[in-house]
Amino acid sequence: MQVNAFNVGNFCTNCYLVSCETTKMAIIIDPGFDNLVEAERIFEAIHNKELILRFIVNTHGHPDHVCGNGIVKATFKVPILIHEFDAFMLEDSAGREIGKALGLRSFSPSADKLLLDGDSIDVGKISLRIIHTPGHSRGSISLLGEKAVFTGDTLFAGSIGRTDFPDSSENDMLCSLKKLVDLPDDFVAYPGHGPMTSIGEEKRSNPFLHFT
Fold first, then answer.
1. Which of 2, 10, 52, 135 is the most buried (most CB within 10 A)?
2. What is the mean pLDDT of residues 154-168?
3. CB 178 within 8 A of CB 141
4. What secondary structure letter does DSSP report for 196?
5. Which H or E run includes 151?
6. Can you tell me the distance from the alpha carbon of 184 to that of 60, in angstroms, rounded to the nearest whole number?
7. What domains can be seen in the chain, in order of their start residue?
8. H helices then E strands: how many in the chain?
9. Confidence class of residue 40 from pLDDT cuts 50, 70 and 90?
């Protein structure tokens, strides 16, 4: 599995281009850019690596993670995948107004496929398993691969996602974090914002993972 990370958008969202080196199949996780100028960096990488883009995957439905969905879909004609509980955010007029208030200039079309806990996304010879990790939003997910996990806004290096939004839950977040700390220490964690880390490092140093 090859992972290329791009820091995009007004909120420094991590957008990941995940590809299978053998088959050249690829997916984009959380395209948080809202203009073609930023998108071109990622599109150039796709073309230079001769990748075949299969899916757009959103770890949750907040505008800073989905605002580039439409740009990617229009360019590559690929479906948008998101957990069933966050799909409404792609269609919600209130969500679009929030996006505009945040200075975003593009928005997402509706989802093409709804994800459930335990589903798998196949990227060539790579399989990413969906782990439902609510807390930051009701439909937040993490994507589990071989020795790697994409944690969205659930787990960051040294911190965790906010739980003060209308669709957030501190109790759900606690349960989701417990799922992630059960992963092996050597798993690389690719968060929705900030630097990559490892599950072991977060167990040792992240104050939010010191459960009582």
1. 135
2. 95
3. no
4. -
5. strand 148-152
6. 24
7. 2-209 (3.60.15.10)
8. 6, 14
9. very high
